[in-house]
Amino acid sequence: MKRTRIACLLKTEKRGINVVAAGWVRTRRDSKGGFSFVEINDGSCFANLQVIAPVTLTNYEDEILRLHPGASVVVEGLLQASEGSGQSVELKARAIGVLGFAPPVEYPLGKQKISFERLRELPHLRARTNSFGAVARVRNVLAHETHRFFHDRGFLYVHTPIITSNDCEGAGEMFQVTALDPHAPPRRGDGAVDYAKDFFGRRASLTVSGQLEGETYACAMGDIYTFGPTFRAENSNTRRHLSEFWMIEPEMAFADLDDDAELAEAFLRHLFAAVLTQCGADLRFFDQRILPGVLARLERLANAPFGRVTYTEAVKLLEGSGKAFEFAPFWGMDMQSEHERYLAEEVFKGPVVVTDYPEAIKAFYMRRNDDGKTVAAMDVLLPEVGEIIGGSQREERLDVLEVAMSKGGLNPDNYSFYLDLRRYGSVPHAGFGLGFERMVQFCTGMHNIRDVIPYPRAPGLCY
RNA sequence: UCCGGCGUAGCGCAGUGGUAGCGCAGUUGGCUGUUAACCAAUUGGUCGCAGGUUCGAAUCCUGCCGCCGGAGCCA
To answer: Other C-beta atoms within 10 Å of A81: how many?
Structure first.
């Protein structure tokens, strides 16, 4: 069986050719004119293919009339200009083979409305809906274009480990990985679990970030990036958080914060432009059914340069705004969602890069600025979503880094590999992290991040 | 974790103290080069769970469970 994807069939100019298509039935309409309309979708594009199933088919009475949404079919027939007005081509069937029926009483995805909440209970079937098919295609393009962007710039793709023995890093609570019997783990004399007897001979967890390992490769290979799953055991229950999500983390040697911000802006604009050119039909669906205006927003962002402001200037803007924030802004505060959104939506009316945050509210590895108060950190803020990228120039001076670690209560023994990078041939370097699902969310306008990843994991959610 | 909202038929929802309703899906019939087809009839519910108030509770109260939204944490 040599089938042609529906995306190709709908694109071709040829008519009157014999083709085979295969897919899943979306809807069937019977006509008394001697045939039924059967719309099938195969995931290759947003649109369905209209199949004309004449009553003369040998299995018309006993099979075609039993086709309901979800049934799988292989159709052989003639690709012809459509007599109807809703589509330019259709497939006039000479034979329709039914691979599998989908009884409408049991199959949950009929023609009736269904909520995203309900679909989350059906992750194995939801890709068959318009929304999730479109999300899957946009997500695929974003992933592919991420690799293309970095490869075109000479960045090396590095696979950082998923299981790690890094003793936290401050990024969040970690999922423990163990092969010990949870009911009877080996114990030391003091009663504590003896992880020396665990699989790795020490306590291990799922990674919360590939950054530290990524830095080690940047400090040998130059420009690198990672793109892989990360895990947070935080009990955060919002539409913007997942327990398992994919993160993109570039790291550049011989680079400072300005280089970092330039890379972030170029990367985001590349992705915006890519989905606009490659996902037209899907984006039009999102624009019509999910979030009106999402298309225009992407077009605007793909062309507009990002705003740039220091944290100190940003706080002055907030203080002088006259706006009644729930949390009054002051220098030294960690910016609240309302502050970030005000900057992006009302002051800059577009993406903005905020740099040079107070040392006290940022991570230990960020480079101390000469003012003694701030670090070379940056956040990229988008309208409506807030922070999408967090990054920094890294502290490359051994003595300064050691002081920062002890201030943060971190045990240097757990970071000897990281400190070695500063002991031997240290170089200035910088990088950032981007939550991939938030990017998918932003491009599709999908409200809940659980609906932009195939199998979402969140507190209490692991189908 | 905190605050707020919701939980009624397979699905989406209405119903604020007096015998449970609508749309879709299903079934039956009709009609049509149809477009999430349309028209008519019809099947289907321990109103999340457990207590309580009341002559009477989907409706009011308490607890629990689940989900959603916002916040925090962050990406």
So the answer is: 10
